Amino acid sequence: MKISIITLHYIQHYGSLLQTYATQKAFEKAGMEAEIIDYIRPNATEEAITKDALQKKGFEKNFIKKAAFLWAKKIENKKRREFSNDFISKYLHMTRRYKDYEDLKNNPPEADIYCTGSDQTWNSDYNGGILPAYFLEFAPAGKKRIGYAVSIGKDKLDPEEVEETARLVKKYDAISVREQSAKKIVEDLGFPEVQHILDPTLVLDKHDWEPLIAPRMVKEKYIIIYKLNDNPDLEAFAKKLSEKTGCKIVRMSYYLNHFKYQGKMIYSPSVEGFLSLINYAEYVITDSFHCLAFSLNFHKDFFVVYPKKYSTRLESLLTLTNTKDRVVKNGVCESKGIDYDYVDKVFGIERKKVFDFIEKCKAGLQ
């Protein structure tokens, strides 16, 4: 039985790549042949992303700042492209590249089931509109359509997108989402039963991830910092923790301006290196959902600093695992420790729900 999955595999950062691999692997563990549809949405080319970022910075009319920004982006994009393409070529089963949606619609891959995968595939703000590709409008008539850990990425739909989104989701045979808010949104659209499940990266346990973890990269005991946003609280807490424990500060990033911070920088490591730096750390400090997810999976002593936006997923995962006391507030965290027996028990229950969902989706096709 073959499943074709459309997701945001091409977003060049660790979370998107690893959730794509984890989605593929989950269906393979359920005895299916899985492939990733190589379709890239129009506003996700490097040129489009750089142009959008330049406009947000307001540098278009300042020649010096614009030149410096474009120079930095060129280096960052090159490094991100390298680790992304390397990971995709080694671990993902890809279809041919589709040049645009019309190409995909006219020549869809052959499969028994078509799947909208995880990441923000139903976030119209992020994707630049309601894109038919991510609602499986290209799937041949009569074929089963499912959503697997789909993300909407916001608490409610804009009023003007409700009617069209309702029309599209009602064509699905089964839908699971990775956010409680998304479950309510889709059920309110008229879909009868939506299941809230784990993010794909947590559906796999550490044993599943071990073949991908690179050898240890830092000899000394260290604190790893992986952050996506500037936050003085995070830096202040890291400095205090380093002084208290004697552990070296190490950070990983694909942003050049993060070289200004304290500690050893490992710039744009491979995806396997990203996993390694979390796995071998004494402590992890992050504002990233997927870094938190792997910290939990690898039983790390972690601390979370909420970003100003999009902290809902972090809070939800911390609540699920009874680890909300690991949040740093005003540079302080008063946690007494992490009960990993409880965390593992919760993940065991939640993983079973995921594979029950997949088996339900397979029903009637065997």
Characterise this structure.
By secondary structure, the protein is an alpha/beta fold. The protein has 2 domains: 2-204 and 349-362, Rossmann fold, CATH 3.40.50; 207-335, Rossmann fold. The chain has helices at residues 14-29, 46-57, 63-91, 101-106, 124-127, 162-169, 180-188, 200-203, 206-209, 232-245, 271-279, 289-297, 312-320, 340-362, and strands at residues 2-6, 33-39, 94-98, 113-116, 144-150, 174-177, 194-196, 222-226, 248-253, 264-267, 283-286, 301-304. The chain is globular, with a radius of gyration of 21 Å. The chain starts with a strand and ends with a helix. The mean pLDDT is 93.
Question: Briefly, what is this?
Answer:
The chain has 366 residues and is an alpha/beta fold. The chain has 14 helices and twelve strands.
Chain-wise SSE layout:
Elements: E1 2-6, H1 14-29, E2 33-39, H2 46-57, H3 63-91, E3 94-98, H4 101-106, E4 113-116, H5 124-127, E5 144-150, H6 162-169, E6 174-177, H7 180-188, E7 194-196, H8 200-203, H9 206-209, E8 222-226, H10 232-245, E9 248-253, E10 264-267, H11 271-279, E11 283-286, H12 289-297, E12 301-304, H13 312-320, H14 340-362
